[in-house]
Amino acid sequence: MTLEDFRNELGAREGQAEVWLVYAADVLAELESGRTTLALQEAFFTRGEAYALAERLHQHRQWQHYYVFRITADIAWALGRVPRLAEYETAFGRARQLPSVSVGPSELAAAIQR
Fold first, then answer.
1. How much is the pTM?
2. 94 contacts 75 by C-beta, under 8 angstroms
């Protein structure tokens, strides 16, 4: 989704929406550094879609761990460039101490597949 489309979608949702983000843990980076490194896979306007993707991906790649985070997006934030902290929701795979995740409007818009 383009940033402009993302802003329009927020406008259609009364200027604000919850967005769920699916992150994958980079297993190789973790083995090398000992730290969990997360990579954004996709983002969704519904919790169900995010959970379904994370579960489906984990079923096909059980060695890979997936995490769902939630962020509240609003038009004022989407007009800027400042990253916003996402809130951890749940894990698909091994639970562990996770790093904080933040995402900017452009990155979030690009992760929404529409």
1. 0.89
2. no
Q: What are phi and psi of 36, to 5 degrees?
A: -75, 125
Q: Report residue 46 as tokens.
A: 């519904």
**CA torsion angle for 72, 76, 53, 63 (degrees, to 10)?**
-80
74-98 tens-digit pLDDT: 999 999 999 999 999 877 766 667 8
8 A C-beta contact, residue 40 and residue 111: yes
Count of beta carbons in the 10 Å neighbourhood of residue 111:
19
**Long-range CB contact pairs, 54-61, < 8 A, 24+:** 54/22, 54/92, 55/92, 57/22, 57/24, 57/92, 58/92, 58/93
Amino acid residing at 52 = A
β-partners of residue 69 are 21, 88
* Lookup: tokens for 109: 């818009």
Instruction: Yes or no: say if 54 and 92 are a contact pair by the CB < 8 Å rule.
Output: yes
Tens-place pLDDT, residues 8-52: 999 999 999 999 999 998 777 777 877 788 999 999 999 999 999
